[in-house]
Design brief:
Length: about 350
């Protein structure tokens, strides 16, 4: 999707969408094959052929005169990386006269494969969005009114001091951000200490610390152990507690490629999500019963001798105790009672995981 800055009232502007598109295409030579280049080179009909011939003539004229096609401005394409998260999606920023006016997802990026998530699609808006707040706003009688920075600082400070005086410093909770750099994180933590509390947290401790505890102890590495290439070469994938189609569409794109290569997709979720709609096997569990569901899988895996004995020997401590408890307490009837999944579906999922290797 091409994201273009809205312009109104431009004197002398050509109103035809085709001419506007052609001029925009002539004004730049993108370093990669984007949608416009692909369509232009695909020979789609006489109109495109004529446009291509005109492109050649105009390019030659431009080269001879050194003139710019779009106004007198300089148009550049800057390859950059989306800063929203650590995935690393590539973006081509179109810069006109030093202003970022539109963007394209990079098609030859091995990460985002020419796609954006909703946050990445709005990347330009963070710095140049027409609707971005540029000053403090206060809700007064149901409507937002502009106030000065001094008024905003004084009112917020007064409210915080009021809370501290009435209920103590621990009555206020501070949370950091992944968008903070090291210095900002340092200053926030210093401020919280100066405030007199230890109520300072960060989203990574909530969403990621659990994986560090499990993954680091098992693999010796606290982050992801799979790359997107691993996903695309997998023969089976188990999604549990993940709605990637909405929460991580770039990851979902790689999963859909994996499905084209024959990967079986299993989605376990109380809700039938957009991710579940793509599943080869959808398992609906009761909310909060992830562990009984996993114990139910392990029951069938142990019962049929499908466990990876070498991995357990090399990497897992205390599995014999876990096995004894599962085989005694988490029989299929108990699992169904806890999470609502019948024995035949539990067995089917366990067998899918066993029969299709490698998995993710």
């Amino acid at each position: 999707m091409l994201l273009t800055k809205k312009q109104t009232g431009t004197s002398g502007a050509v109103s035809s969408p085709f001419i506007h598109s052609l001029r925009r295409g002539l004004s730049q030579a993108l370093p990669t094959m984007d949608r416009r280049s692909f369509l232009r080179r695909s020979g789609l009909g006489v109109g495109v052929g004529l446009a291509a011939s005109q492109l050649s003539l105009v390019q030659k004229a431009q080269a001879a005169t050194g003139a710019s096609i779009v106004g007198a401005g300089k148009v550049e394409v800057k390859r950059t990386v989306c800063t929203h998260c650590s995935v690393g999606c590539a973006v081509d920023a179109v810069v006109e006269n030093g202003v970022w006016v539109r963007q394209e997802a990079v098609f030859d990026s091995p990460i985002n494969l020419g796609a954006h998530c909703a946050k990445g699609a709005a990347l330009r808006e963070h710095g140049h969005g027409e609707y971005r707040l540029r000053y403090p706003m206060k809700l007064v009688n149901g409507k937002y009114e502009r106030i000065s920075w001094d008024v905003a600082l004084n009112e917020i400070s007064a409210k915080m001091l009021e809370l501290k005086k009435a209920s103590g410093p621990d009555s206020v909770y501070f949370i950091g951000s992944s968008k903070h750099n090291n210095e900002q994180a340092y200053l926030l933590r210093k401020f919280v200490s100066f405030w007199g509390t230890n109520n300072c947290d960060h989203q990574a401790r909530i969403c990621h610390s659990t994986t560090v505890a499990g993954v680091a102890n098992t693999w010796g590495y606290g982050a992801m152990t799979n790359s997107y290439n691993d996903m695309q070469n997998s023969k089976v994938a188990l999604y549990i507690g993940s709605n990637a189609a909405e929460a991580h569409p770039v990851s979902m794109l790689h999963m859909l490629h994996a499905k084209e290569n024959g990967c079986k997709m299993i989605v376990v979720d109380p809700r039938f999500t957009r991710t579940a709609a793509k599943a080869d096997e959808y398992v609906r569990i009761r909310s909060g019963t992830d562990i009984p569901f996993l114990f139910g899988l392990v029951y069938h895996i142990f019962k049929n001798g499908w466990e990876d004995k070498k991995y357990i020997s090399d990497r897992v401590y205390g599995m014999e105790a876990v096995k004894a408890e599962i085989m005694a307490k988490w029989t299929p009837d108990k699992v169904e009672e806890a999470c609502g999944v019948k024995e035949d579906q539990m067995f089917k999922v366990a067998k899918m995981l066993h029969d299709n290797n490698p998995g993710t």
